[in-house]
Amino acid sequence: xxxxxxxxxxxxxxxxxxxxxxxxxxxxxxxxxxxxxxxxxxxxxxxxxxxxxxxxxxxxxxxxxxxxxxxxxxxxxxxxxxxxxxxxxxxxxxxxxxxxxxxxxxxxxxxxxxxxxxxxxxxxxxxxxxxxxxxxxxxxxxxxxxxxxxxxxxxxxxxxxxxxxxxxxxxxxxxxxxxxxxxxxxxxxxxxxxxxxxxxxxxxxxxxxxxxxxxxxxxxxxxxxxxxxxxxxxxxxxxxxxxxxxxxxxxxxxxxxxxxxxxxxxxxxxxxxxxxxxxxxxxxxxxxxxxxxxxxxxxxxxxxxxxxxxxxxxxx
Amino acid sequence: xxxxxxxxxxxxxxxxxxxxxxxxxxxxxxxxxxxxxxxxxxxxxxxxxxxxxxxxxxxxxxxxxxxxxxxxxxxxxxxxxxxxxxxxxxxxxxxxxxxxxxxxxxxxxxxxxxxxxxxxxxxxxxxxxxxxxxxxxxxxxxxxxxxxxxxxxxxxxxxxxxxxxxxxxxxxxxxxxxxxxxxxxxxxxxxxxxxxxxxxxxxxxxxxxxxxxxxxxxxx
Amino acid sequence: xxxxxxxxxxxxxxxxxxxxxxxxxxxxxxxxxxxxxxxxxxxxxxxxxxxxxxxxxxxxxxxxxxxxxxxxxxxxxxxxxxxxxxxxxxxxxxxxxxxxxxxxxxxxxxxxxxxxxxxxxxxxxxxxxxxxxxxxxxxxxxxxxxxxxxxxxxxxxxxxxxxxxxxxxxxxxxxxxxxxxxxxxxxxxxxxxxxxxxxxxxxxxxxxxxxxxxxxxxxxxxxxxxxxxxxxxxxxxxxxxxxxxxxxxxxxxxxxxxxxxxxxxxxxxxxxxxxxxxxxxxxxxxxxxxxxxxxxxxxxxxxxxxxxxxxxxxxxxxxxxxxxxxxxxxxxxxxxxxxxxxxxxxxxxxxxxxxxxxxxxxxxxxxxxxxxxxxxxxxxxxxxxxxxxxxxxxxxxxxxxxxxxxxxxxxxxxxxxxxxxxxxxxxxxxxxxxxxxxxxxxxxxxxxxxxxxxxxxxxxxxxxxxxxxxxxxxxxxxxxxxxxxxxxxxxxxxxxxxxxxxxxxxxxxxxxxxxxxxxxxxxxxxxxxxxxxxxxxxxxxxxxxxxxxxxxxxxxxxxxxxxxxxxxxxxxxxxxxxxxxxxxxxxxxxxxxxxxxxxxxxxxxxxxxxxxxxxxxxxxxxxxxxxxxxxxxxxxxxxxxxxxxxxxxxxxxxxxxxxxxxxxxxxx
Lengths: 316, 220, 668
Description:
The structure holds three protein chains of three kinds. Chain A is mainly α. Chain A has one domain (2-313). Chain A contains eleven helices and one strand. In chain A, helix 1 (2-33) crosses helix 3. The termini of chain B are far apart. Chain B has one domain (4-215). Chain B is built from eight helices and no strands. The longest helix of chain B is centred in the last third of the chain and has 29 residues, at 177-205. Chain C is mainly alpha-helical. In chain C, 69% of the residues lie in helices and 4% in strands. Chain C has helices at residues 3-24, 31-52, 77-100, 113-126, 130-148, 155-186, 191-196, 201-219, 228-234, 237-262, 271-291, 295-322, 326-361, 377-390, 397-411, 418-450, 457-460, 467-485, 487-502, 529-551, 576-579, 581-591, 618-639, 646-666; strands at 58-62, 71-75, 555-558, 595-599, 610-614. Chain C has a two-stranded antiparallel ribbon with strand order 1-2. Chain C is globular, with a radius of gyration of 26 Å. The chains are: A mainly alpha, B mainly alpha, C mainly alpha. Chains in contact: A-B, A-C, B-C. The interface between A and C is large, with 87 and 93 residues. Strand 1 of chain A pairs parallel with strand 3 of chain C, so a sheet runs across the interface.
C-alpha cells in the first residue's frame, strides 16, 4: 500500500516538476530555429520563483472569485495531469477518474479561469473570456469524441486500461485512431493557446486570448496561472504519448528497473513532443479568430468520423 | 481478421476520405490544388498497396498513372492556369464551411448506411473500402455543387473520380480497371481543358467592378 | 399506515390548505402560514416516499371520483422515486417562499393555487388509473396556469398564459387519445389492466408517439418547447423553480410510466424519435439560453436543454430494452433518473437565486446588473455552486449523471440496428456540444450577473435576501455537493425503480471501496467523485496555504490594469451580448438564423449608431405560429355562437341531441 502511494506520489511530483521544463524546452527549440539563443531552459522555474516573491496586486472591483481562481485552476489541472499515465499504468488512484473526468476537470479549470477574466470588469478580460468560451465550445466536444474513439478501440474509458490495450499490439493500424490522433493534436494546440490558435508570447490586444483573460493577475496569482498553463501543456503531451506511443510504460506491479525505464522514456517522449511543437509553431502563422472555429470544427468532425466508423465496424 | 494488410489498405482508404474533407475545408485555390495532389498521392499508394496485396501487377500501372498524372501533372497544370487567370490569390467565398462539413459527415454516414447492410455477404475487407470509396465519390459531388468557381468544380470532379478508382481497385478481380481508369483520366484532362476555355471566355465577358464590390465584406 | 395512504392524506391536506388559502389568501399575513404548512406536508411526504423506495408496489382504491369507477392509487418504486423529486422540490420551494412570498403584490392570486399545484403533481405520480392520472395532469396544468397568470396585468405574462394554455390543452389531448387507445385494448382504465393487456405493435407505436407529444410538450421537448420560456419565467420565482425543476419531471414520469411500463415490450425504432428529439432539444435549448438576456428565461431555456439530455438517455434505454440488453438499459435509465433528480436540485437553486436578484433589484435583465457578488455573498455562492453543477463539472452531481449518459453511449455500438448505429454517435456529439455550451452559458450568466461592476443604480443598491430563502438555497446546494461526492448512494437508491422497468440494474455501488462508481459489470470505466473532489479541494487549499506560508500573502488593492487603459465607466465592461457574440456568430447563425444589422452613421452626422440583432426559433416559425393562427381562426368562428337568439340556441341543442341519438343508434 505504501509502495502504491509512493508510485502515485512520484507521478504527481513528476508532472509538476517537469511541466515548467517542457515549457522552457519548447521556447528554447523555437529560439534555436530562429537562430536566437533564447532564455535558459530553467527560466520558467525562475519566473515562478520571482513571481511568488512579489506582492500580488488585486483590482478594487475584484471579488474572492478572482483570488481563488488561480488555485482552483492549478488544482484541477494538476489533478487531471496526475490521472494521465506518464511512466506507469495501473497506479493506485488511476481508477478515480477516466478520460471523460480528465476532460471535465480541465473544463472546471476553464470555468474558474473565465469567471476570473470577467471578475474585474475590464474589456480585455471580457474579450479573452468570450473567445476562450467559443474555442472551448468546440474543443471540448471534440475531446469527448476522441474519447469515444479510443475508448471503443480499447473497450474502456480508463486511461490506464487504454494504454495497456494499446501496448498489446493487437490494435493494429486503425483509420479511426489516425483520425483521433489528428483531432487530438488540433485540440491540444487550441487548449494550450498555441499558434495557430493563439500566441502564448503575444501582448497585442487583437490577437490574444488566454493572455487577455489573465491580464489582471500579478505576483503569486500569476505564478499559479502560469504553472497551471505549463502543467496543461504537459498533460496534453503525456496524453498523446500515452495513447499513441505507449511504448515504455511500466505495467502495474513491475520492478524498480521498469519504473526507471518508464521515467526515462517518458522524458524522451516529452522532449520529442516539445521539439515537434516548437518546429510546428515557427513554421505556421496565427489564424484570425473567426478562422479558428473552422479549424476546431475539423477536430470535432474527425473525432465524430472516427467514432462513426467504429460504431459501424463493431458488427463486422 | 485485422491483419496488417487489411490495416494498411484501410488506413489508406481512410486517408482518401480525410483528404476529401481537407479539400472541403480549403477556401484558397492553391491549397485546394495541393490537397488534390495529396489525395491523388494517397490514392496512388492505396492502389500500389492493393497491387502488392492482391498480387495484381496491372494495378501498378493504375498506381503509376494516379501518382504521375494526377498527383503531379494535373496539379502543376492547374497551378499554372490559376496564375495565368490571376485568381490564385482569390479567396473563394464558400457558403459556410461548417455547413458543408456537416453535409459531408451526413454523406459519409449515408454511404456507410447504404453499403454496409447490403454487402453483408462479402468480406469485411472489401465492405468498408467500398463504403469509404462511395464516401469519396459523394464528397466530390458535394464539392462540385457547393463551389461556384469552375476550378474548384473541376477539382471536385477529379476527387470524385479518385473515389471511383478506389472502389474499382478495392474489389478483387477487376481486369478492366486499368482501361477504365485511363479512360477516365483522359476524359478529365479533356474536361479540364474544355471548361477552362469556357472559364476564360466567361472572365473576359464579365470583367465588372460590381462583382468585386459584392465580394467586399464577405471576407470575414 | 402505509406510505401510499400517507401520500393520499398529504394530497388531501394540501387541498385543504388550498381551500383555506382561497378564503384567507388575500391577506399577505396568510402567506407564511400557508407556505409553512406546505413545507411541513411536503417534507413529510418526501420522507415517506424515501421510505417507500425499496418497498414493493402497493395499491389503494378510493370510492371518490367518477361513480362506479372510483380512484385507483398505486405506489411502486418508480412513483416513489419521482415522489422524492416532487416533494423535495416542493419542500424547498415552500421554504424559500416563506421569505420570498412576503413581498408578493397579489397574494390572493398565488396562495390558493400553490398548494393545489403541489397536490396535483403528487396525484399524477401516484395515480393508478388513467382517469386520476389525467385529472391530476389537467389540475396541474390549470393550477400552474393560474400561477403564471398571477401577474396578469403585464402584457407579456398574459400572452405567455394564453400560449401555455393552448399548449397544455394540446398535450392533454394527445395523452387522452393515447390512454383511449390503451384502454380500448385493455377494457379498463386502471394501469394494472392496461399493463396486463399487451397492445398490438401498431397501437403501441401510435400511443408512444402520442405520449411523446403529450408528455414532451409538457416537459419542453423540441419542437414543442416554445411555450416554456414564456410561461416559466412569468410566474413568481418559487413557482418558476417548481415548474422548471419539478413539473417537467412529472411530465417525464408520465412518459416513463407509459412508454416503459404500460406499453409492454418495446420496438427498437421507438428509441429513434426519442433520441432525435432529445439530442435536438439539448442543443437548441442551450443555444437559446446563450442568446438570452432575461435571467429567468435563460434558466427556462436551460431547463429545455436538460430535458433534452434526459430524453436522450431515455431513448438509449428504450433501444437497449428493445434489444434485450438489461444491464445497458439499466445504465441509461439510471442516467436519466439521476439527471432528473439533479436537475431538480440545481435548477431550483438557480431560480431561487434569480428570485433573490429580482427581489433585491427589481431587474431580470442581466445586462442591467453586475457586481452583485459583493452585495449578495451567500446567494451568489449558492448560484455559483449550482452553475458548476449544471455545467456538468466534477466533482458535483451534474457531472456524475452526464458521465453515466456518456458511458451508456459507449455501450451502444453493440446495438444491432443500423439506424441506431449511425444515430447514437451523432446524438453523442450533440450531447457533448451541449455540455460544453452549458458551461459557456453559465460562465456568462454568473459572470455578467454577479461579477464585474454594477451597471445600474438598482444593482448598486442590492442587498442580500432573507434567511428562509438562503436556507432553501443552501440546503439544495449542499445536496448537489453530496450527490456529486457520493453518486453511488443515489444510484443504489434508484436501483429498485430501474429494475422494475428494465429487468436489470447497475452494479450495487455501495459496496465498492471509496465510493467509486462503475457503470456495468466488467467495467469499462470508473469515476470517483469523492476522490476527485477531495483531491481538488486539498490541492486548492493546500497550495494556497503553502504559498501564503512560504512566499507571503502581501496584497495591494489598486485600480484595474487593463493594458494601461482602464476605463472606470461601468458600461465599458463586456456585456452578455458581446460575450456570446462569437458563439452567436458561429452556431446561432445557422440554427437560429441570428442576424446582426449594424447601422453606422456616416462621419459627421449626429445620429446614434445602432446594432440590431434578431434570432428566430425554427420551431416557432414552423409549428407554433401556424398552430396559434389555426386556433385563433377556430375561436373566431365559435365566437359567433355567443350572439344567437334563444330560438337558434334551442335549435342547436336539438340538432346536437338528434346527432347524438343517431350516433348511439348507428353504433352497435
